[in-house]
Amino acid sequence: MSRASLSGKKSKSIDNTGFSPNSDAAGRRLINRDGTVSLRKKGIPFYERISIYHSLLRMPRLYFILTVFGIYTSLNIIFATIYFSLGPDSLEGTLLADSLSERYLQAFFFSSQTLTTVGYGHISPVGFVTNVVASIESFIGIMSFALVTGMFYARFSRPEAYIRFSDHFLVAPYREGKALMFRLATTKNNHLTDVEAEVTAAIHVTEHGKATTKFYQLALEFSKINSLGVSWTVVHPLDENSPFSDFTQQDFTAGRLELMITIRAFDDHFSNTVQQRTSYIQQEMVYGARFLPMYEQSKDGKYLHALLDKLNDTETVTWQH
Amino acid sequence: MSRASLSGKKSKSIDNTGFSPNSDAAGRRLINRDGTVSLRKKGIPFYERISIYHSLLRMPRLYFILTVFGIYTSLNIIFATIYFSLGPDSLEGTLLADSLSERYLQAFFFSSQTLTTVGYGHISPVGFVTNVVASIESFIGIMSFALVTGMFYARFSRPEAYIRFSDHFLVAPYREGKALMFRLATTKNNHLTDVEAEVTAAIHVTEHGKATTKFYQLALEFSKINSLGVSWTVVHPLDENSPFSDFTQQDFTAGRLELMITIRAFDDHFSNTVQQRTSYIQQEMVYGARFLPMYEQSKDGKYLHALLDKLNDTETVTWQH
Amino acid sequence: MSRASLSGKKSKSIDNTGFSPNSDAAGRRLINRDGTVSLRKKGIPFYERISIYHSLLRMPRLYFILTVFGIYTSLNIIFATIYFSLGPDSLEGTLLADSLSERYLQAFFFSSQTLTTVGYGHISPVGFVTNVVASIESFIGIMSFALVTGMFYARFSRPEAYIRFSDHFLVAPYREGKALMFRLATTKNNHLTDVEAEVTAAIHVTEHGKATTKFYQLALEFSKINSLGVSWTVVHPLDENSPFSDFTQQDFTAGRLELMITIRAFDDHFSNTVQQRTSYIQQEMVYGARFLPMYEQSKDGKYLHALLDKLNDTETVTWQH
Amino acid sequence: MSRASLSGKKSKSIDNTGFSPNSDAAGRRLINRDGTVSLRKKGIPFYERISIYHSLLRMPRLYFILTVFGIYTSLNIIFATIYFSLGPDSLEGTLLADSLSERYLQAFFFSSQTLTTVGYGHISPVGFVTNVVASIESFIGIMSFALVTGMFYARFSRPEAYIRFSDHFLVAPYREGKALMFRLATTKNNHLTDVEAEVTAAIHVTEHGKATTKFYQLALEFSKINSLGVSWTVVHPLDENSPFSDFTQQDFTAGRLELMITIRAFDDHFSNTVQQRTSYIQQEMVYGARFLPMYEQSKDGKYLHALLDKLNDTETVTWQH
Fold this sequence. Notes:
The structure is a homotetramer. Chain A is α+β, with helices and mostly antiparallel strands. Chain A has 6 helices and 17 strands. The radius of gyration of chain A is 29 Å and the shape is elongated. Strand 16 of chain A pairs parallel with strand 1 of chain B.
């Protein structure tokens, strides 16, 4: 069977995916497994391409902490230098000797006590200018810690779906025929309701001698479930409504099928809408397998146990036909 | 009448509830009265199953306060130990004697004054290392209090529906026939608008000799009301469109009927969408009763009084047929 | 014409308003002009009827500030009493004399300096117990100020529509017939888009000798506009689809018509959904008037001026028929 | 062709844009390029027209910082004046001399140390009244910094689409005919999904000898895309369904066509709905051009590069007919 049989089907290819039909001749993955897009922006200055807010929220936790601590230290160095440059009489205190380096350290510690508003007072500002600078520094301290702590909390409380997807998608038996399937579960103690799945397939074909990418929104057995308990197996039946109804394993491989997946849900307890995206490429397909159950009753019968380590457990099937 | 009569009805059973048709042979409740699911996750390490954010938001208030206070105390112990280990000259102060225990306590109190940024200054850091540690501690204090106070406020301001459901659901007279009914009211000084109800029934039947659970989305008299004033009686008419149209009391009992309920609404004053879930099991059914009114006019006629203690008030009815 | 002509119309009365058809014999207004409902809850203890969060957000600003200041003072009194009761040696400081009242004041001021974490240090805690209490107080201070300042900011930033409604609704000429109309405008520097109106009419009729209230969702000329510029005149045509198509002024009066209005919109600049509700009763009807324009071009032609003081400007019309 | 040919088309003009059909005789732009409306409100007092929250969020960053710093300074001046007026014995401290100006400065610095709760303690309050004032000031400090820092963070974290629109809209070849087109891209490291476009056209015509403005919601090739990768060219085909199907360049010019555009999307990473608006006027039309591609493969084929500097790159086309 040739892939040219894609045309003339009931299901129409779509063009509104935001991807270009001819942008992917090189065989890149369109969407990464973590849901990000393999896209880099160029042509305008760096600072116009960066939303500091987005950057601070997306960077790894360790980078974030180092960045924030770096800002804290930098501000202290700046203000310490100012206090230091105001001369030895600008700060009063009993702790450190009079050497230049110790004077600078004293200025540094006074700065940090001012910036955090801890203000022990064992070092204190003397004179008009020093007092004005300290007054401004404590103001700046409050304002910048507001941003930093706000970001810190926003990172911590960011609505997340915590969905884990099976490593592979399957071509599995389904009713009298076959279906594309993948499985997902929430791994954490969150509970998702009104869970919606949207699966877009990208398939690379040659039309009129030109390589092009076609996109299909795949019809699902269920595109929405009320509640995500143990797990959800998302199913696209390979029936007469599917653009891939008579595809063989070779057709999928040759067409470098990619499934682009968006899951959207409502966090039951906290009234947030959460979204997670991922994709599967053809190399992640297992042709001829079915998922095994991933739950069991607790011994007392009171609980259902979701066995998250079995998310990827499948058994091979042999086709009857 | 046998429960086999479920099949062949107009209403089709649904499969997208997120519950498995064969997961509940043991007769567990699918959803608890407080809306949670009787589900436990296993098979992956504890820390991968826990969203600290969700845990902190869902734990009882007392636990939360104890947890936070425990963290505060732990941080103080850690930093007190550091200050203590830096020797007797690391802190300057006049309050406590020189015994080891009192030195430790002084270090502890200095730590707490630094962590909270209260910084009285009657104890103050001496020397380079102590000052650096104090500088870091006040930074850590600000950052961790940001998380803790953010969580505290998030718990306090969490959008909640404050809906109370009647203890039982009824099979009550309705027009010429019968209907399943339950009643709900908001108990607090919040006002809900655009209130939607979604009721899914689970019924346990034996098909082809195998115990299975069937799910039905129940048609409601009204699935949405503009505004939740005194109360709302949610009604599923047991008419020809119901999967239970000719069920007797015994059929409901034998089928271990469970009603799974989701209420979603818009908080009028604060522009939040709120959601609350609950369920009724067959033991919570009263067959042959109707709800009594739960409001009265105030004496001056200016107010309507919602009588929340009458939420469960019913009267027994005897069926004419 | 008798009001009995309500029945048999095309438009069907609705029952899902959340109001009871027989709860309003006394002629109360169902919804107040500020959108609240004339409803009081009874029958359960006070503390179960109150959401502290909702109460703090809805109380008038002055009450809020007084409440917060009252809590602050109370906490200080409690802790001052503890410090005072720990004896004259529990606090060290130079400011006040040794009289009992001055000792108490010193304890009070020390408490306030601890609660706010200002911690000057001119009064400082002495001894184990006092230090522990101070350590706890500064912790409580941070936690309770988190709630209070969170509420304060939430009140300040609460999404609001800032819609002003015309004082009266009109029965005005419309195309070849008549229409019910009212007008609204945003008064502040916010910009609403995707503005939706929902108008429910309540009319009191006597059916089979029994006073009852019927509810109708009124069809509007436009139920949604893209953008709320100068103002929006919401129009319900009194045509053959209206339940009031052949009502006379007397019919409206006798039926004690009440219009219950919900406006929902999207705040253009801040991505909030906002909602505002109001109602008109029959006494607020002007029969035979039309709204006058409430805008003018600025002299340089660059701006359109919304003349908000003309929101209520109408002119009387005499019906041709 | 005369513009009178607008009437009698399939596409019906709409009236629910919130703009008045006769408000724009002077030829103003209805919506500015930054999405704001050229509207000023009059007729009610200034303080009733201003939402302080909206004003603080919308003002330029420098103004905001100056405003906040101004408030901080003003509060310090007010409290400094109070402390100063309480006499030379109200504050204890060692820093400044006894001249009146230095006493005032000391009061000012004490105030700032109290307001920010830095509280060094080298200046400290003496006596009942001063202590009460300081206690109130630290309370006011915490409350007002809560507002100010909340605003500061809200400005920083405000959901934004960061969409850049092409400078011009084109009349370009499209299939067998022509289409109106403009192009947009996100410039920052945010990723938008479920992006919707809504385009309303305003055209000024003369009907029955009277200048009037007609509005049309334009049908788009796609009104929604799944994901906004490199860019999106929004297309309104000038086919038989368009109100402008047989418009010439002169017709667009004479009718002073204005396109009013709303883009709404879901921020993939942070679960916010974001909205951005703009408009094009007839002077920003290029008749007979098409957009050039604005992406390229990275050399290693792993990334797609969005070339944001080519957003406006077009090439001229000559019409075949």
